[in-house]
């Protein structure tokens, strides 16, 4: 479904050259839920932007559904890390969610229902008429998530989407995202810096090194598909998995020579 | 702020100035500076008759035509230029050159091409109004938030939807700024175009009065122009408040 092969991305310009992604290869099967963790600045956002066709790769290839990505692939949705700036300040919340649906062949009633359902699912059913800037950061983030959910994409890319919400809302949204994924059988790539979240959500965790980035390790999460916040998180298997991810990430974050001795 | 205090603040200074003018000009015997009382008397006599239809209305219609045309041209070209860096580099020197020409000097030239009728006067207004709108639109379109642009790209919002919901709305605060500047330029040019060659209009009438030594009438024309300016900018503000509600609410 989603193939990243020897991806390399070098930013240059304004007197600075950054090799954000060195050599990245991984595969995501159709309908799979993959979480991506890595230290800050390792190129996670860069990776998502390349997959979404918003940024040309310097070298290597990305295929979505077998087709090489040269522009935004159809049926792909993104929840941006800068969620606040990704909402249209001149459109009300409901219109923000509805705008990407305009090209879909939906009746007005169907469209409205989808918008309402998506906003209700993120707990924003009474903010339909608000402008995004009248909402808190966490609420804005939920609008961005609702917009992606209402779009019913085949591939959903999420870039640290729960960074601005409280623990309880975060837990609810995690379950929501898993529900949506299971119902719609979406292919999901979910970037987070929270190790627990990566293990709780994903079927597989891809761990990235620091820049120039390559895949440090991949870990299959052999937990049952039914997950719940209390049970799963207290499962011994869960603790073992998160300990593995944790040690890898720590090795990646440490200065290079220390990293070598630790791994 | 209560409505009462607001009203007091808004009308305070104009009332004081008006009262001062009234008092200090009351005993004036200077022919060129008549008392305000006689200017006001002339005002009612001069403007509350057929002149509204014969002079005020034609002026306003020409202003409206020129201003609307400038809006269409300025926003249309501004969007095109703002969206295409290459086009911008190509036309920028020409735009700077044309913008630097004071529109009044175009009047004699336009008379050669367009005669002395309404067309010439509308074109004079256009030639002055289009620049602030055009240049501000270009800046506004260039300043589109890249995250929003990416959002549109990723979600397949293209073509007319993109133009309407992203480009024009993003640029609208700048477009409104340009349109506001253009409005005052437009009023000035409306009057100037009528001073050169005309048989009707506000500018024409004021010059006629001056030539005919009808001094209170001349002053009343100036007063009327000022009032029209206030009225038009009030209308403009009403429109702006609707169009930019999201923008003013945000800050
Ligand atoms: N537009 C850009 N121009 C130049 N360099 C950039 C640009 N965007 C990102 N970079 C560089 O690329 C590297 C990776 O950035 P990226 O935003 O992908 O990291 P990230 O993993 O998403 O970090 P975080 O977890 O903090 O969001 C950084 O070193 C950054 O400085
Ligand atoms: Mg990032």
Explain this structure to me?
The complex is a heterodimer of chains A (263) and B (251). Chain A is α/β, with parallel strands linked by helices. In chain A, 37% of the residues lie in helices and 25% in strands. In chain A, strands 5-4-1-2-10-9-3-8-7-6 form a 10-stranded mixed beta sheet, sandwiched between helices. Mean pLDDT of chain A is 91; it is low at 258-263. With 251 residues, chain B is mostly helical. Chain B has a single domain (55-250), classed as Orthogonal Bundle (MetI-like fold). Chain B is 84% helix and 0% strand. In chain B, helix 6 runs antiparallel to helix 8 (159-196) and helix 8 (159-196) packs parallel to helix 9. At the A-B interface, strand 6 of A face helix 7, helix 8 and helix 11 of B. Magnesium ion is lined by residues 44-45, 81, 159 of chain A. Chain A: It comes from Virgisporangium aliadipatigenens. Chain A: Pfam families: ABC_tran (PF00005). Chain A: Residues 2-235 form the ABC transporter domain. Chain A: This is ABC transporter.
Question: Which helices and strands occur, and which strands form pairs?
Answer:
The complex is a heterodimer of chains A (263) and B (251).
Chain A: E1 2-13, E2 16-28, E3 33-37, H1 44-51, E4 59-64, E5 67-68, E6 76-79, H2 93-98, H3 108-121, H4 137-150, E7 155-159, H5 167-184, E8 187-191, H6 195-201, E9 204-208, E10 213-220, H7 229-233, H8 236-253, H9 256-262
Parallel strand pairs in A: 2-10, 3-8, 3-9, 6-7, 7-8
Antiparallel strand pairs in A: 1-2, 1-4, 4-5, 9-10
Chain B: H1 3-25, H2 36-47, H3 51-83, H4 85-100, H5 106-114, H6 118-142, H7 146-154, H8 159-196, H9 202-211, H10 215-243, H11 245-250
Helix pairs in contact in B: 2-10, 3-4, 3-6, 3-8, 5-6, 6-8, 8-9, 8-10, 9-10
The site of magnesium ion has 4 residues of chain A, from helix 1.
Subcellular location (chain B): Cell membrane
GO biological process, one term (chain B): transmembrane transport
Keywords (chain B): Cell membrane, Membrane, Transmembrane, Transmembrane helix, Transport
């Amino acid at each position: 479904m989603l193939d990243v092969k020897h991806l390399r991305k070098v930013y240059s310009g304004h007197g600075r050259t950054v090799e954000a992604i060195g050599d990245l290869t991984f595969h995501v099967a159709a309908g799979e839920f993959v979480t991506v963790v890595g230290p800050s600045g390792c190129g996670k956002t860069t990776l998502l932007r390349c997959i979404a066709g918003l940024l040309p790769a310097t070298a290597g290839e990305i295929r979505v559904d077998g087709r090489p990505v040269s522009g935004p692939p159809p049926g792909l949705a993104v929840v941006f890390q800068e969620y606040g700036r990704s909402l249209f300040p001149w459109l009300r919340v409901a219109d923000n969610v509805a705008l990407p649906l305009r090209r879909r062949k939906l009746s007005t009633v169907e469209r409205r229902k989808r918008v309402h359902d998506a906003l209700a699912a993120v707990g924003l059913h009474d903010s339909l008429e608000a402008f995004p800037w009248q909402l808190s950061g966490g609420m804005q983030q939920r609008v961005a998530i609702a917009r992606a959910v209402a779009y019913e994409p085949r591939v959903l890319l999420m870039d640290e989407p729960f960074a601005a919400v409280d623990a309880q809302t975060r837990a609810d949204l995690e379950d929501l995202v898993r529900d949506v994924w299971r119902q719609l059988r979406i292919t999901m790539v979910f970037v987070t810096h929270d190790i627990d979240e990566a293990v709780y959500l994903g079927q597989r965790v891809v761990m990235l090194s620091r820049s120039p980035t390559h895949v440090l390790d991949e870990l299959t999460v052999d937990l049952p598909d039914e997950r719940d916040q209390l049970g799963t998180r207290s499962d011994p298997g869960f603790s073992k998995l998160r300990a593995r991810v944790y040690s890898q990430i720590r090795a990646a974050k440490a200065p290079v020579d220390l990293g070598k001795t630790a791994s | 702020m209560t409505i009462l205090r607001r009203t007091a603040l808004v009308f305070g200074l104009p009332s004081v100035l008006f009262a001062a003018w009234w008092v200090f000009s009351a005993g004036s015997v200077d022919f060129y500076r008549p008392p305000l009382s006689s200017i006001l008397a002339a005002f009612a006599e001069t403007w509350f008759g057929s002149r509204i239809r014969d002079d005020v209305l034609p002026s306003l219609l020409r202003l409206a035509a020129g201003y609307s045309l400038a809006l269409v041209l300025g926003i249309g070209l501004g969007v095109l230029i703002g969206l295409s860096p290459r086009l911008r580099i190509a036309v920028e020197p020409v735009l700077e050159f044309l913008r630097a020409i004071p529109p009044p000097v175009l009047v004699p030239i336009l008379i050669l091409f367009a005669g002395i009728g309404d067309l010439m006067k509308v074109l004079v207004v256009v030639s002055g109004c289009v620049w602030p709108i055009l240049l501000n639109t270009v800046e506004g379109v260039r300043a589109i938030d890249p995250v929003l642009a990416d959002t549109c790209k990723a979600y397949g919002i293209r073509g007319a939807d993109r133009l309407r919901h992203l480009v024009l709305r993003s640029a609208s605060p700048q477009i409104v700024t340009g349109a506001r500047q253009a409005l005052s330029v437009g009023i000035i040019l409306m009057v100037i175009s009528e001073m050169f060659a005309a048989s009707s209009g506000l500018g024409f009438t004021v010059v006629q009065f001056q030539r005919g030594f009808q001094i209170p009438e001349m002053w009343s024309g100036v007063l009327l122009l000022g009032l029209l300016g206030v009225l038009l900018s009030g209308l403009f503000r009403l429109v702006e408040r609707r169009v930019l509600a999201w923008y003013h609410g945000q800050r």
